[in-house]
Design goal:
- This is GNAT family N-acetyltransferase.
- One of its GO terms (molecular function) is acyltransferase activity.
- Its EC number is 2.3.1.-.
- The protein is of the alpha+beta class.
- It has a single domain, classed as Gcn5-related N-acetyltransferase (GNAT) (Aminopeptidase).
- The protein is built from six helices and seven strands.
- Strands 1-2-3-4 form a four-stranded antiparallel beta sheet.
- The protein is globular, with a radius of gyration of 15 Å.
């Protein structure tokens, strides 16, 4: 049986993360720079605890394969306002974002497995959270299909600021509630 484990990102992981962010399949959707300075800028606050997010290295059967970013939506007021203009955002709702670093691991169902494991782990880590909401740029078909296969349901469609300025603002909003068929 495949096992997933999530552990906090550390600065020792920054070279690994930079390599993942530089991969074309990751950079297309995450749109972060991968220089040491940029990785420090974008992820240092999470490591230091000055950002209200969790950046977690995802291990599959003991091997690091990706990143899970997780936070309470209300901790980011602009994101909350954008989502709340499109759909209901319950108090305490959590959001996740994710990537698989190695292009050889994409298209094999690993993303779906990782999302299922992330949902289960989120229910444990956030016992008072009743909802996970994920906004995905509509053009990122692989991502929203993985969410659907993992048990999340599309609840809304609307415009949000895309990470990559090349993308349309059109986003699909996915949701799973505690008590739904577990992902």
């Amino acid at each position: 049986m495949t096992t997933y484990r999530f552990r906090r990102l550390s600065r020792a992981d920054f070279p690994l993360l930079a390599g993942w962010l530089a991969q074309p399949h990751v950079h297309r959707w995450w749109y972060h720079q991968s220089t040491p300075e940029a990785v420090e800028h974008d992820f240092g606050g999470g490591v230091d605890g000055t950002e209200p997010c969790e950046d977690l290295i995802v291990h599959r059967d003991g091997e690091p394969i990706g990143l899970l970013q997780r936070s309470r939506i209300a901790d980011y007021p602009e994101e909350f306002a954008g989502l709340a203009a499109i759909t209901t955002v319950p108090a305490g709702a959590v959001t996740i974002d994710y990537l698989i670093g190695d292009p050889e691991r994409t298209g094999r169902g690993i993303g779906t497995e990782m999302i299922r494991a992330a949902v289960a782990e989120t229910w444990e880590a956030y016992p008072d959270a009743a909802t996970i909401i994920v906004a995905v740029v509509a053009a990122n078909t692989a991502s929203w299909r993985a969410l659907e296969r993992a048990g999340l349901r599309r609840v809304a469609v609307g415009d949000l600021e895309p990470d990559n300025p090349a993308d349309s603002p059109l986003h699909y909003i996915y949701r799973i509630d505690r008590g739904d068929i577990e992902a």
